[in-house]
Amino acid sequence: MSADILNVALIQTRTPAHPAEALEHARPLLMQAASNGAQFILLPECANLMEARKEQKALVVTGEDEDVFIRGVRDLAKQMRVEILIGSAIVKSGVDEREHSSSDSGSAMRNVNRTLLVNTHGDIVARYDKIHLFDADTPDGKVYRESASVKPGEQAVVATTPWGGLGLSICYDVRFAHLYRTLAKAGANMIAVPAAFTVPTGRAHWEVLLRTRAIETGCFVLAPAQGGSHADGRVTYGHSLVVNPWGEIIARLDHDRPAVLEAQLDFGEVAAARQALPSLRHDRDFSV
């Protein structure tokens, strides 16, 4: 297979609330994707656990090196000789950063929501901590405050892969167009958007945002998603999809069930889209 052609697989999961259970949930899907010829497999956001309840989360979140899901995926990547993107894992930040507020005098260390790129040797070769955290009151009456337990990242990342630059982002990041333009200008020819979108925002915005990010960057956009009802009461949208650099959806799941979504990327399409619409070269300074 040419380095200009890539067989990808996106894993849509309904991740449980414990890393060990999450690994057993994801393992057969990962193995199915590899057996079907995928060279690069992407998992969604919160792939190691879906748990928003503070007390329960505190019992299962560990450091990156101790997390059984991360260790298991690294072993699988090595065994199957594929690259795997852990769309994100919730792990301890490794920094003794304490929250200090009048409402929480005992405050605890925050976690990070971290993407991990694992190569065919099982090594972690890139990391990205989610920059934009989901603090929102959604139309269904739910309140989300990701920043209460997660420390935001500060560094955009374009990872090196055998097929070119991979821009890293997570879920709510997709609403911040400047991040994606930065990733494209820094060498990305594909961008990952692993997610755990809510159902109301997913129905309204998921597809249009992902297509827009592809169009404005001239990149392939790869968006593996969580889907369905989770142990902590959250319900996620699913509908994983792949968008080409012209903004066309070339693969999609039309449901929220666990599944494997396969696509073939031809990176010649990146050059063609950017030649036809060279907007990445047309930025100008302006004032307001």
Automatic annotation (TrEMBL):
Q: Which InterPro entries does the record associate with it?
A: C-N_Hydrolase, C-N_Hydrolase_sf, Nit1/2_C-N_Hydrolase
The UniProt keyword set, sorted, is:
Hydrolase
Task: Give residue ranges for domain CN hydrolase.
Answer: 6-267
Any single GO molecular-function term of the entry would be:
hydrolase activity, acting on carbon-nitrogen (but not peptide) bonds, in linear amides
Classification via Pfam families: CN_hydrolase
Question: Which protein are we looking at?
Answer: CN hydrolase domain-containing protein
Q: Which organism is it from?
A: Asticcacaulis benevestitus DSM 16100 = ATCC BAA-896
